[in-house]
TrEMBL record:
This is HAE1 family efflux transporter. The chain crosses the membrane at residues 342-361, 368-389, 395-415, 440-460, 472-494, 531-553, 869-886, 893-913, 925-945, 965-986, 998-1023. The keyword Metal-binding does not apply. Keywords: Cell inner membrane, Cell membrane, Membrane, Transmembrane, Transmembrane helix, Transport.
Amino acid sequence: MFVDFFIRRPVFAIVCSIILTLVGVIAIPTLPIAQYPDLAPPQVTVTSTYVGASAEVVESAVTIPLEQELNGVEDMRYITSTSTNDGTSTITVTFAPTRNIEVAAVDVQNRVSRAAARLPAQVNQTGIVVNKASSQMLLTVGLSSPDNRYDAKFLSNYADVNLKDAIKRVRGVGEVRIFGERKFSMRLWLDPSELARRNMTPQDVVRALQEQNLQVAAGQVGQPPSSDEQPYQIAVRARGRLVEPEEFGDIVLMRNNDGRAVTVKDVGRVELGAENYGTLLRFNGRTGVGLAIFQLPTANALDVRDGVIKELDRLAQSFPPGLEYRTGTDTTLAVRASVNEVIHTLIEAIALVILVIFLFLHGWRSVLITALTLPVSLVGTFAFVYLMGFSINTLTLFGLTLATGLVVDDAIVVIENIERLMAERGLNAFQAAREGMKEVAGAVVAISVVLVAVFIPVALFPGTTGSIYRQFALTIAASVALSTFCALTLTPALSARLLKHHHGPKWVFFRKVDQVLDWTRDTYGKGLRKLLAHPLIVLVAFLACIGATVMLFRSAPTGFIPDEDQGYVIISVQGPEGMALSQTEKVLQEVEAVLKAQPEVNVMFAIGGFSPSGNGSNYATVFTALKPWEERTGKDQSVAALVERLRGPLGKIGSARVIPFQPPAIRGVGSVGGFQFIVEDVAGNHSLEDLANATQEMVRKGNEEGRLRGVYTPFNANTPILDVEVDRQKAKALGVPIEQIFGVMQLYMGSQYVNDFNYASRTYRVYVQAEQQFRDSPQDIGSFYARTEAGDMIPLESLVKVTPIVSAQVIKHYNLFRSVEINGQGAPGVSSGQALEAMEQVAQAALPQGMSSEWTGISLEQKESGGQTLIIFALGILFVFLVLAAQYESFSLPFVIILSVPLAIMGALGLQVARGFANDVFCQVGLVMLVGLSSKNAILIVEFAEQLREQGKSALDAVVTAAEVRLRPILMTSIAFLLGVVPLMTADGAGAAARNSLGTAVFGGMLVSTIVNLIFIPGLYVLMQKVRGDAKRSSGEEDAPPSHEPAPAHAP
């Protein structure tokens, strides 16, 4: 027998266990640490800029050509785009989770190259950027001057030159953005009236720049081929590219009739200004600049963050006086806190399990043998985690925490049976070990195979839900497999050497425990025998429980990933359309005043002109980092409580709409917490105003729906726009080229990137634009001049008509359709599943014909996971059934064991609902696990009952005896497991929501399964035996040959 080998050779068994433990110890330092596995689907972004263009022009000239080319790229799930009034086009292609991000980025780049010929020349000149960086910020850093000695331009360029490039070299960093950026640019501010007075247009300035500011390769003197007598070869440097503002001011534009040169400084001024003035940053109430660090999708967040901070500390040593940096929002703090909390939970679970073992097994020898399975099974599992490419994250640690109560089960069953044989039959430890393993080895293997089998379909499932299940499931499966190996090798080997007969009196406490257990066993046996005399009562009660389970399944609120306290709050600000950035900054000051009054707030990182939904002068976003979790122990100090508390004072800010949000539950999936709902113009014949009206009606009805809270959309079509219509016939008659009219407006009003210059060993851009006072009002457009082919100057007021209209500042597409995103969340006490259902009902009632709706982001993941969960659950039950059928050589007997599952589900969902939790993904993970756990106790009873049946006992006697004999190990293993789950149920702090959900489901399911199935399993076994017996008698079949070696019957 396999087990006999290890009983005879205990050193071999010990060495095997030591090797498994050492391999796990070696693997631990090499494993990355994360809050969750990589759940965000791969994304590739395409960003381009059409300077001076409105959102509609960007949409038609840039976004649509790129979208049409990118649509349908291999493994694409969906494509979104944003076109904004600042000339920016951002397209995001989201791929299937299995898609290799490197290959996807190459495919996208190739398609962008094919579309480049259809884009405006200025877009290609500015450049199209393809990125595969994570869509979620890892870390924000504020750079400021406490004594205000440095302005925003200095701070921005210091960060650009000295910090940004160094941080980008840190391993794992994908992108570094500067908020409040004022990157150097040579600005030529023109005076349109001076140009017109000299019969010149801004195009003349651009041509002069292109002619006189250029890099020249002047060659070499004596460059080969040359004569043999050539004595030297010298490089020639022709200084064509200008550097200083004065040099640009001296660029010659033309010469007057008197021969005097007209230069740039005669028609305007030149300064070393900034390339972009569209955003600002306030850090803790002071003007500054901010750096947002994005990690690569495949990088480890904690390693990247530590590398960035280490580099910043090194760079800070050379900061000039009066300059300092400080971290803002740090998403890895939640990761560290969550992982640490789970580790503490794991330690608590181990301590409680050892306590239960000591309580039931009494002797230190038994406790030692059983406890030794913990390091082998748990630590050894890390080697498997390494081999599978997993990380140390919430899910793998959850698996180990739950496995703490499982891995000792097999050892408890083995030791309890060996000690029983020593006490009842007087066998020595060696004999009892051999005989005891003959009785329980089959059950131990069957239980382990069932627990592993239930996770096989889970491990093979694709998508985000599959990623969540996979790491949890395979971690438990590995630990259970190792614990089974220990139970069949190390445990019997040590038991045969260490266990002793108890000759002296036991402690009073242990005697009382044994007396209670003996009384419980005897009372249980008598009551069970009486109850099984009426098996129909058991059947009716069982069917009633099935009905209750079905009702709970239908009525329990559903969810996906519970919102966690991630240590920061996101505040969205949207002012009236057309609000200037300076006015948005005043709103931010009001927001900061509200935040400063909150004791939980630690750091404020406010970005004006930016929002996740698109950039604009009336938008702003405030990332508010809170104090550490240990300083926020009250329930009213959590992120969720603070968000609710902020709604009132922030809602009173009358000059803008200010809404606080929790961050998204999964980094990289969505921009804010709550749901993301998309309204689409699928007909393609609705105006932006129609789209805005439809979505505003939805928002109104959504906020009237009691199950929803904070429903809003940043979209509207009321942004003031000046519509310029050119009188083409008149322009043609006067000899004014149409492209010159548009060129004049673009150069004066929107600016144009012409070429580059070198400064401080870097290359920067040269822009041409009208001076600020010449583009302050709509009337200024008419005062610009265009030149006829005859050389006459014509004011634009005679050629164009300027009409004020309204349009959208940001135009979004979803799968190529114009779309609007609506955000919101469930009201307090409403699950995310109920909120999604409510929003769908609102859309069904409010959307007009030709418009449709879809979910995106984390809401899409939740909707897609609903059907997958049922499939996973069904496959788990099927695999367990097939394994049991093979084990018992029967298709009928496994039904008895499988029928224990609904009762466990009843307990899980019942306690989940009682505690106000949703049937979310962590609850569903627990339900899948309960398929194996609830089968475990049933196997212990049925396995032994089958052995007794093979010896000729009746079904009733066999199952009652088996239930009595197995009661003690069932109670021991179940209590050990339940106490190991208690720390999950009662957890608080970072990551507590997930632990609470999983712990509650598993605790409730295991508790009900243990208690109720001690009655139902024997009853169903008797009924099944009657059915089997009747079937066999009617068909004349004989009993199948025994599948196990006969074991002697033992008294209870």
